[in-house]
């Protein structure tokens, strides 16, 4: 009797191995019947997860390549956290902080143009005060003659305190002339010039070379 049972068990094992290796779908069902069921991710699920991670990394690297120049020892690249659907232009949060060498008042650039300065930093993130903040102020100069002006931040940044005698006009370049921004960092161009309400100075509106709502990567100039 025991001999017959041994032969029967051997035949069952051989058949099970045959189904597992040569008829996988049948083998899977047999294993489910003969043993405890466990949930194992399929190859397709694992590949889908890996592809999703790779796609996210590729998107990030594409943004960095498109929006940032080559890094230098004095600069740090950082990505801008999305604040959609609020998108406050006056400040933004980036994914670099003290541990990456970022400190308060470091200048923040987008495609080589001054975007703002670091207001505060934590270990791996920082808050940037942009030129669209109404409290932002920075001495600047205009054109090849270097006429002095004050950049006043806001939803539409303006140039104030331009000398009434200054010969400035549309398309004149505007660049930084005060700390913490590196000297002569471009900011934009003059869009139009008008006389200030007090008739003592001129004011000018700015034409910026970017849309702040589309900024996804920035460059921080470490002091």
Q: Could you give a short description of this structure?
A:
This protein is of the alpha+beta class. Helices cover 26% and strands 32% of the residues. It starts with a helix and ends with a strand.
Describe the model:
With 223 residues, the chain is of the alpha+beta class. The protein folds into two domains: 2-40, no CATH class; 74-223, Thrombin, subunit H (Beta Barrel), CATH 2.40.10. Helices cover 26% and strands 32% of the residues. It is built from three helices and twelve strands, in the order αααββββββββββββ. It has helices spanning 2-22, 24-34, 43-67; strands spanning 75-79, 91-94, 107-110, 113-121, 126-130, 137-142, 147-152, 158-163, 173-176, 186-195, 201-207, 217-221. Strands 1-12-3-4-5-2 form a six-stranded antiparallel beta sheet. Strand 3 and strand 4 form a beta hairpin. It starts with a helix and ends with a strand. The model has no long low-confidence stretch (mean pLDDT 82).
Keywords:
223 residues, single chain, 6-stranded antiparallel β-sheet, elongated, 12 strands, Thrombin, subunit H, 3 helices, 2 domains
Secondary structure elements and their pairing?
Elements: H1 2-22, H2 24-34, H3 43-67, E1 75-79, E2 91-94, E3 107-110, E4 113-121, E5 126-130, E6 137-142, E7 147-152, E8 158-163, E9 173-176, E10 186-195, E11 201-207, E12 217-221
Antiparallel strand pairs: 1-12, 2-5, 3-4, 3-12, 4-5, 6-7, 6-9, 7-8, 8-11, 9-10, 10-11
Helix pairs in contact: 1-2
